[in-house]
Design goal:
The chain has about 180 residues and is α/β, with parallel strands linked by helices. It is built from seven helices and five strands. It has helices at about 30-45, 55-65, 70-90, 105-110, 125-135, 145-150, 170-180; strands at about 20-25, 45-50, 95, 115-120, 160-165. The chain has a five-stranded parallel sheet, with helices on both faces. Helix 1 (about 30-45) crosses helix 7 (about 170-180) and helix 3 (about 70-90) packs parallel to helix 4. It is globular and about 40 Å long. The two termini are about 20 Å apart.
């Protein structure tokens, strides 16, 4: 594994023109935030935690162990899309965490100005469950993992992005993702 110095930023791929959004997606506990923060730092992109865009009603619902439905997620996804568009209009690329479990959710995000690539974090489900059991200070309980797994729709061939199944260390996963992003 080659370590990339923190001061060295990866260039935009040749196919990307203008602002780009890298959406780190997947079920809760899959390592989205850890990877996204590291990725934003390496690329020099603006970072946003998708959970911060949830309404208090959504947070309360999840904390009570009730899965969100499409109606709950619609305004949340639009607010992330609006933020991405505002950043693109300001000439900034972004890294955003968002479960983006269904293709129609990803369609909303993809409609933001700028190009979009999805990085689907998909470590083994047992590892994800273990992470959720030990995670503290988050409103998403481990009891909702099964509903997220059931809701998840894999990236389709017409979607720009790739899946990361590695259960490696965060620096190992970051190196893999940086390597993959060069193709997008």
């Amino acid at each position: 594994m080659t370590e990339i110095p923190a001061t060295e930023m990866s260039p935009l791929p040749k196919r990307s023109r203008g602002p780009r959004h890298v959406i780190v997606m997947g079920i809760s506990g899959g390592g989205k935030t850890t990877l996204a923060m590291m990725l934003a730092g390496k690329l020099g992109y603006v970072f946003a935690e998708g959970d911060e865009f949830h309404s208090q009603a959504n947070r309360d619902k999840m904390q009570a162990g009730i899965p969100l439905d499409d109606d709950d997620r619609a305004p949340w996804l639009r607010s992330i899309q609006d933020w991405m568009t505002a950043e693109a209009r300001a000439g900034r690329s972004t890294v955003v965490t968002c479960s983006a479990l269904k293709k129609r959710y990803r369609d909303v995000l993809r409609a933001a100005e700028g190009s979009t690539v999805f990085v689907h974090m998909a470590p083994p489900v047992d590892l994800t469950a273990e992470r959720l059991q030990t995670r503290q200070g988050h409103y998403m309980p481990a009891s909702l993992l099964d509903s997220q797994v059931a809701t998840l729709e894999e990236l389709e061939e017409d979607e720009v992005g790739f899946k990361v199944t590695s259960a490696g260390t965060p620096p190992e996963v970051l190196a893999q993702v940086l390597g993959e992003l060069k193709d997008y």
